[in-house]
Specification:
heterodimer, A: alpha+beta, 25% helix, 29% strand, globular, B: 167 residues, alpha+beta, Immunoglobulin-like, 10 strands
């Protein structure tokens, strides 16, 4: 099964000394695939209305997370952390090697109208993508993620339950790793920098295979 | 039989006096000194975003447990008590109905956990704006909160600051 292809790397407590005894040590839970998995084809649109497909992921590393714009807590928290992770990586590598952050909005009825503003509040380079439900579901499958929309309440409000992990897509457009909360900035950046180094961090680099 | 009545009545009288005294003592300490919300903030969001969150540390300095059962804000159509959690890798947000603030304890509402969900902003909020929120306790008391609107990434490495919040 696919699961057997994973091995777990937990990067813990890299800068624990900074924190007081009572505070939790900063962490990231990173899982690297033994064999990067190609992402199946999908057709979505980015926040400017331009097509965004599995091919769009090629050429650089990407960090993809599923979420929805009516999510006030977990999604913004993760996006804000990824912004800081990207800034931290910016101190370690050239700008063209930095990963692009892609927010896969799984609630298109509500997300289309404000997707651009939502993602760009965190960083102007962040990309929001959404589309038809069947295409979103195809993309989710490729990122080994899920999203479940709850039944609307009497007021018509509903929530969306979704994977908390961030999919790390390599420059060949393949699922290379997943990172899970907490996304503490330094260990997350360290995990990603290490992964990029191992796999070769240029668009054509794939020395690990 | 009859002779028991009087002492019982006396006991009742003494008992009610004692209860009355307790209420009287409690009433003398203003609610604001027994319950407060510290470091309340609302992450800034673009005007097109119709749900916001509010975070704070609720402090109960009294010797009795209290429960926040609802909240409201003049700046929002509705406020709900929510909790986010990650179970088996899936992020979920649910309406928790009430938040317990145990006697002499502090409860942190912070990113990725308990928070107030602010629904339907009535005005566009800019950073440094103040948002008034009222927490209603099951006891009938209320806690007035003034939350500041600020960006998530400002301050001292805000991605980490939740670690410092008292639990």
């Amino acid at each position: 099964m696919r699961r057997s292809g994973w091995h777990v790397l937990v990067v813990a407590a890299l800068s624990a000394a900074v924190w007081s005894g009572a505070a939790a040590a900063p962490r990231v839970n990173g899982v690297i695939l033994d064999r990067a998995a190609p992402v199946q084809a999908f057709t979505l649109e980015d926040h400017n209305g331009k097509p965004f497909t599995a091919e769009s992921l090629k050429g650089r590393w990407s960090l993809v997370l599923a979420g929805f714009t009516h999510c006030p807590d977990v999604c913004p928290f993760t996006l804000a952390n990824l912004e800081q992770v990207t800034a931290e990586l910016g101190l370690r590598m050239r700008p063209d090697r930095l990963p692009v952050v892609v927010f896969l909005a799984v609630d298109p009825d509500r997300d289309r109208a404000n997707l651009k503003e939502y993602v760009q509040q965190f960083h102007p380079d962040f990309i929001g993508v959404t589309g038809e439900i069947d295409q979103i579901d195809r993309a989710l499958k490729g990122f080994d993620a899920i999203a479940v929309r709850s039944k609307p309440d009497a007021r018509g409000n509903y929530s969306v339950t979704h994977s908390a992990a961030v999919a790390v897509i390599d420059p060949q457009g393949r699922l290379a790793a997943k990172i899970s909360p907490p996304f503490d900035v330094e260990p997350t950046a360290e995990f990603l920098a290490d992964l990029f180094r191992r796999r070769g961090d240029g668009p054509s680099g794939d020395r690990g295979r | 039989m009859m002779k028991h009545r009087l002492p019982l009545r006396r006991l009742l009288v003494i008992g009610s006096l004692a209860i009355g005294a307790t209420f009287h003592a409690a009433a003398q300490v203003p609610t604001a000194e027994r319950f407060s919300a510290e470091n309340a903030w609302v992450p800034w969001a673009p005007s097109t975003v119709s749900v916001h969150a509010a975070y704070m540390t609720i402090v109960n300095r009294s010797d009795e447990d209290r429960f926040v059962v609802s909240a409201e804000s003049p700046d929002y159509e509705r406020v709900e008590l929510h909790s986010s959690s990650v179970k088996s890798g899936v992020a979920e947000m649910r309406d928790v109905g009430q938040v317990a603030i145990p006697a002499n304890k502090r409860v942190a509402l912070e990113p990725g956990g308990l928070h107030l969900m602010l629904i339907g902003p009535k005005r566009a909020l800019a950073t440094d704006d103040r948002v008034r929120i009222v927490l209603h306790l099951q006891s009938g008391e209320r806690v007035d909160v003034l939350a500041v609107v600020r960006r998530r990434n400002t301050g001292s490495h805000s991605g980490h600051e939740h670690h410092g919040a008292p639990r």
